[in-house]
Amino acid sequence: MNQTAATVDCKHEPAVFAPVINRNRCEGKEDCVRVCPYSVFEVRKLTADERRAIPFLARLKVTLHGGKQAFAVRAQDCHACGLCVAACPEHALTLVRVERPA
Predict the structure, then answer these.
(1) Are the C-beta atoms of residues 8 and 83 closer than 8 Å to each other?
(2) Is the pLDDT of residue 21 over 60?
(3) How far apart are CA 24 and CA 30, in angstroms?
């Protein structure tokens, strides 16, 4: 069951960190979607251009897993709770600090 934002101990305000998805690892299993209390992720089929942009072996892996991968469609809502990183069975997610203009 998805945790609500009120029950998660997040360490940061939104948009301080953003999730980065490793396209060579993501198998679109939707664990990140299920655990994220801020609805940052969605899983969808890759477009033809997105498929061409990843290496051949990663393309094969994507094909074997239904042609889907996760996307951080609301990355600006990420509070860096780390639930997605812990839930991802492929270790395809990291959180990176967002660079702010000086």
Answers:
(1) yes
(2) yes
(3) 16
